[in-house]
TrEMBL record:
InterPro entries: FAD-bd, FAD/NAD-bd_sf, FAD_aromatic-hydroxylase
Pfam families, per database record: FAD_binding_3 (PF01494)
Domain (FAD-binding) ranges: 5-161
Gene Ontology MF, one: FAD binding
Protein's UniProt name: FAD-dependent oxidoreductase
Length: 397
C-alpha cells in the first residue's frame, strides 16, 4: 500500500471525493478549506448516466444520494401575465438524480472525516516545489511539506494560480453573471421526490427563475466582467436588484424577497481551459479548478469521475506521480470535452427578443430531444478501470 502524503485544497465535492479514494488506496490525506465549516444548502446538483452511477456505487454512496435526492423541477417560461411560453423539462435540468450541494458534501464528509484530516478555516498561501515534495504555507498554521498537492478549489482556484499562473490565462468569462439564493436553485428540498415547478421570466439578456413561492431564486444577466467586492453581499444583492429593475411578472416579488434569502451567491459564468493539461510537477487539479464550465450541467459528475481517475491512477502507479499524472491528463482531457463550449447564459438568457423566441421553440422541438440523447451519450463516453479489483482490494465484480 502507498504511504505518500497528499494535500487537498477544497472541501466542496471534488476534494472529499478525492480524499475518499486516496485514503482507500493508502495515502495520508489532509484537506484544507477556507470556509470555517462545511457549507449546507446551496443549489441543486445532479448526476446522469451509467458512468456517474458506477463511480457513486463503487464509493458506496448511491443509495444515500437516492435517499436525500430532490424532485425534478420543470422550468416553465411565462410572460408577465404568467401565461406559458415554453417548458424546460426537469429531466434535462435534474439528470437521473438530483441532490442539494450541501447534502452531497455532507454524504462525502461522513465517509472521510474519520480517516482524513480536515482543516476548516484555513487556506494555502504559497507553494514551493522541491525535489522531494511541495512545501506549503498556510494562512493559519505552520508550513508543511507534502508529496503531492491537489487543487479542488473551484473555478477561482488558488492552487491553479500558484502552480499554473494567473487566472486570466486560463479562465474565460462567458459574458454572463448568475446569482442563486435560497435553499436550492429551484426550491425543491431534500427528500422531496415529487415533481416540482418553477416559473421563469425573461427579458433579452436577463432571466429570473423562482420556485417554492420565491423561496429559491436563480438570476442570469448578460454583462462584461464586473469589479465588485466578493465579501460585500449587501452590495451584490443591490447589484442584482438594479439589473432586474423594471422586469415584470413575478420578478418584483422575487426582488422583494431577495434580501432575506440565505445561501446568496453571485459569480460570473466562466469556463476553464487548461488545454488538457491538469497537472504540473507535483500539483494536480480536479473538478472546476481543472475543467469547470459554470452551469454547464456536468460539473459535479466530472468532479467525482476525475477524483476517481486521479486517485486510481496514483494507486496503480504505486504513487509515482509522473506516471499517474500523465494518464490522468490523457483520460480526462478526452472525457472533459463534455464540458465543451456550452454557454448556459446564451441558452437561458438570450440577448435578443428573436433569440428568446428561438429558444422557446427549440425547447419543444425534436432537435431538443436529439440534444438530450447526445448529452446522455457523452457522459458515458469513458471506460473506467476497476482500480480496487486490479489492486486486490476487492474481489472480481
Amino acid at each position: 500500500m502507498v504511504t505518500k502524503s497528499v494535500l487537498v485544497s477544497g472541501a466542496g465535492i471534488a476534494g472529499p471525493a478525492l480524499a475518499y479514494w486516496l485514503h482507500r488506496y493508502g495515502f495520508r490525506v489532509t484537506v484544507v478549506e477556507q470556509a470555517p465549516a462545511p457549507r449546507s444548502g446551496g443549489q441543486a446538483v445532479d448526476f446522469k448516466g451509467a458512468t456517474h452511477r458506477l463511480v457513486l456505487e463503487r464509493m458506496g454512496i448511491w443509495d444515500e444520494i437516492q435517499r436525500r435526492r430532490t424532485g425534478r423541477t420543470d422550468v416553465v417560461y411565462v410572460d408577465d401575465a404568467d401565461r406559458e411560453l415554453a417548458v424546460m423539462s426537469g429531466d434535462f435540468t435534474g439528470g437521473d438524480v438530483e441532490i442539494l450541494r450541501g447534502d452531497l458534501t455532507a454524504v462525502l464528509l461522513e465517509r472521510t472525516t474519520a480517516d482524513c484530516e480536515y482543516r476548516f478555516g484555513d487556506s494555502v498561501t504559497a507553494l514551493t516545489e522541491t525535489a522531494d515534495g511541495v512545501y506549503a504555507e498556510f494562512a493559519n498554521g505552520p508550513a508543511e511539506t507534502f508529496d503531492l498537492v491537489v487543487g479542488c478549489d473551484g473555478i477561482h482556484s488558488t492552487i491553479r494560480r500558484f502552480a499554473f499562473g494567473p487566472e486570466r490565462d486560463f479562465v474565460r468569462h462567458l459574458g454572463y453573471y448568475y446569482c442563486v439564493a435560497g435553499a436550492s436553485a429551484y426550491g425543491m428540498s431534500a427528500g422531496h421526490t415529487e415533481r416540482g415547478r418553477a416559473l421563469a421570466w425573461n427579458r433579452p439578456g436577463r432571466s429570473a427563475t423562482a420556485g417554492g413561492s420565491k423561496a429559491s431564486q436563480l438570476y442570469l444577466f448578460a454583462s462584461p466582467e464586473l469589479d465588485y467586492d466578493r465579501r460585500d453581499l449587501a452590495a451584490q444583492r443591490q447589484l442584482v436588484a438594479e439589473r432586474f429593475a423594471g422586469v415584470g411578472g413575478g420578478v418584483p416579488g422575487m426582488l422583494a424577497a431577495l434580501p432575506t434569502l440565505p445561501d446568496f451567491y453571485l459569480d460570473s459564468l466562466s469556463r476553464v481551459d487548461l488545454r488538457g493539461k491538469y497537472t504540473r510537477g507535483r500539483v494536480a487539479l480536479v473538478g472546476d479548478a481543472a475543467y469547470g464550465n459554470t452551469l454547464g450541467g456536468v460539473g459535479t459528475g466530472l468532479a467525482v469521475v476525475g477524483a476517481y481517475v486521479l486517485a486510481g491512477e496514483l494507486a496503480a502507479a504505486g504513487g509515482d506521480h509522473t506516471v499517474a499524472f500523465a494518464e490522468y491528463d490523457r483520460i480526462m482531457a478526452r472525457y472533459a470535452k463534455i464540458a465543451g463550449t456550452a454557454n448556459a447564459g446564451r441558452f437561458l438568457a438570450p440577448r435578443t427578443a428573436l433569440g428568446l423566441r428561438a429558444r422557446n421553440w427549440f425547447l419543444g422541438s425534436r432537435a431538443f430531444d436529439l440534444m438530450l440523447r447526445y448529452a446522455d451519450k457523452a457522459v458515458n463516453d469513458i471506460e473506467l478501470r476497476d482500480y480496487a479489483v486490479e489492486l486486490g482490494l476487492v474481489a472480481e465484480r
